């Protein structure tokens, strides 16, 4: 016969609440802290990429201004300067884009790795806690079974 004891239920509820609070403090908060740090890292890398892009744009504007001022010079000098400016502009923009994409990709990979790592850690903790809870339940169940046999 199944015995339902008020104190068993009360202790079970208290244990669940304590387990919840412990998991929240020691598992969820640290994982969220890691995620927040990674987000800050990504934000800083994105800001760096934007600053690099702005620098490239300002250099582009600077070179274009130099080209406008160079109209008074001879045709050959203007063509040479324009060719050089376009090559540098393309190189700077390509470099900035490439660096920006690399930073973004690296940050995405790091986030994915950290996310998977955190997920595995959480799964391991939950499994371990479930095993502990199952043992406690089985121990508690074993005590009730022997009491009912007597």
Number of strands: 0
- Helix run count: 2
**Mean pLDDT across all amino acids:** 86
Biggest sheet statistics: none
Specify the structural class: mainly alpha
Low-confidence stretches: 145-150
Q: Quick one: overall form?
A: rod-shaped
List the secondary-structure elements in sequence, H or E. HH
Tell me the number of structural domains: 1
Rg estimate, integer Å = 32 Å
Strand % is under 5%
Q: Estimate percent helicity.
A: over 70%
Head-to-tail CA distance between termini: 13 Å
Describe this structure in words.
With 150 residues, this protein is mainly α. The chain has one domain (36-142). 93% of the residues lie in helices and 0% in strands. It contains two helices and no strands. α1 packs antiparallel against α2 (75-149). The longest helix has 75 residues, at 75-149. The protein is rod-shaped and about 105 Å long. The two termini are 13 Å apart.
Can you describe this structure in just a few lines?
It contains two helices and no strands. With 150 residues, the protein is an all-alpha fold.
Any chance you could write out the topology, listing elements then pairs?
Elements: H1 6-69, H2 75-149
Helix pairs in contact: 1-2
Keywords summarizing the entry:
150 residues; mainly alpha; 2 helices; 0% strand; rod-shaped
């Amino acid at each position: 016969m199944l015995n339902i004891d008020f104190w068993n239920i009360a202790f079970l509820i208290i244990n669940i609440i304590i387990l919840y609070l412990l998991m929240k403090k020691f598992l969820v908060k640290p994982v969220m802290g890691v995620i927040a740090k990674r987000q800050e890292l990504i934000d800083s890398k994105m800001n760096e990429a934007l600053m690099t892009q702005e620098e490239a744009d300002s250099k582009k504007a600077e070179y274009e201004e130099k080209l406008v001022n160079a109209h008074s010079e001879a045709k050959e000098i203007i063509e040479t300067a324009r060719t050089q400016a376009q090559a540098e502009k393309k190189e700077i923009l390509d470099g900035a884009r490439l660096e920006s994409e690399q930073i973004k990709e690296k940050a995405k990979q790091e986030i994915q790795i950290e996310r998977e790592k955190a997920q595995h850690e959480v799964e391991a903790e939950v499994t371990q806690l479930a095993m502990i809870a199952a043992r406690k339940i089985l121990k508690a169940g074993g005590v009730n079974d022997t009491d009912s046999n007597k």
